[in-house]
Structure formats: structure tokens, C-alpha cells
Amino acid sequence: MRNLIFTLMIFGVLFLKSQDKDQIAGFINKSHIAINKVQKEGMQLSDKDLEVNFKEAVKFQMASIKYYKAGKLNEAYEFSYKSRMICIGIFNGINKLYADYFNPTDTEKQLMTSDDKTFSLSPDVLNPGETAKADNLKITDIQKLRELEINLN
Q1: Does residue 79 lie within any of the structural domains?
Q2: What is the distance between the alpha carbons of residues 45 and 120, in angstroms, rounded to a whole number?
Q3: What's the CATH code of the domain at 118?
Q4: How many CB atoms lie within 10 A of CB 152?
Q5: Helix pair angle (2-42, 48-69), 10° resolution
Q6: Cα distance between residue 15 and residue 33, in whole Å
Q7: Is 125 within the bounds of a domain?
Q8: Cα(89)–Cα(95) distance, rounded to whole angstroms?
Q9: Cα–Cα distance between 88 and 96 in angstroms, integer?
Q10: Is 10 among the domain residues?
């Protein structure tokens, strides 16, 4: 009987971990969509601040993917959250109505363990080549964005 209870507990924990991983993957993919939407809208504008923020969102998303693949789900989620919040700021700045669609839900907000306004991208997360690719990215260059690892698909 104890073995059965123990086995059920293990399966329950594994199921919850799998559910968390799927939820985080969905969140990361929606942040990827937000980045693509920012690029689409930003191509029509020539705003340097927008491009700087866009690159910052891309770097946070790249870090998120690295953390996810390394099994560091909490970090993956938080960095994708930061990327998404940058995108929402861009949408608000250019008066686009997409911000509501990309706003994290209350449940998603509860998964955050730190304040996204206070953490930054440390230099050791992305290697110099990855950082250079993001820094050299032009908002109008669709193909270059596709070459960066910013989604899980």
C-alpha cells in the first residue's frame, strides 16, 4: 500500500512539473509572438529608442530560451516575462492596442518570483557572439530576427 501511495505521489509531482513546463513554454512562445509584432509595427517607424528597446527584448528572450533548454524554468520564465514587458512598453509607446493581448494574466504574474523592473541581463548569460547578433539587429531585418533563437519551435 505504501508503495502505491509513493508511486502515485511521484507521478503527481512529475505531472505537475510537466504542466509547469508546458505553461512556461506557452508563455515563452507568446513572448516570441510579441517580439515579432513589435518588429512588424516598428518597421514603419524610425525611432532609435524603439529599436534599442526591441534589441533588449530580443536579448532577454534569447536568454529565456537558453535557460529553458538548460532546465532552469524559473529563470526562463522570468527572462521571457521581462522581454514581454518591454514589448508591452513599446506597444504602449506607439499607441498600439496589442498590449492588452500580451499582458500577462494574474496567474502568469503569480509565477514571477522577482520584480522584473529590478533585474537585468548579466553579461555571462549570452555569449559575445549572441550579444553581437542582437546588438547588430535592425528592426527592419526580418531574416536576421528569424536566425536568432527566440522561440521554442
Answers
A1: yes
A2: 27
A3: 1.20.140
A4: 16
A5: 160
A6: 27
A7: yes
A8: 10
A9: 9
A10: no
How many CA atoms, within 13 angstroms, populate the side-chain half-sphere of residue 105?
Answer: 7
User: How does DSSP assign the chain, residue by residue?
Assistant: -HHHHHHHHHHHHHHHHHHHHHHHHHHHHHHHHHHHHHHHHHTT---HHHHHHHHHHHHHHHHHHHHHHTT-HHHHHHHHHHHHHHHHHHHHHTT-TTHHHHSPPHHHHHT--S-TTT----TTTS-HHHHHHHHT--TT-HHHHHHS--S--
Q: Is 88 within a domain?
A: yes
- pTM for the model stands at 0.83
Reading phi first (left if > 0) and then psi (alpha if -120 to 50, else beta), residue 95 is in left
Q: Which three cell numbers stand for residue 141?
A: 531585418
**Grid cell listed for 88:** 508591452
Give CA–CA dist 117/127, Å, rounded: 23
Domain assignment of residue 52, given as a range: 23-147
| Count: domains in the chain | 1
Distances (CA, A) of 72 to 47, 50, 96, 103: 35, 30, 33, 23
- The rounded average pLDDT for each run of 10 residues, N- to C-terminus, in the chain (153 residues) is 46 48 95 95 83 96 97 95 95 82 88 76 91 93 93 89
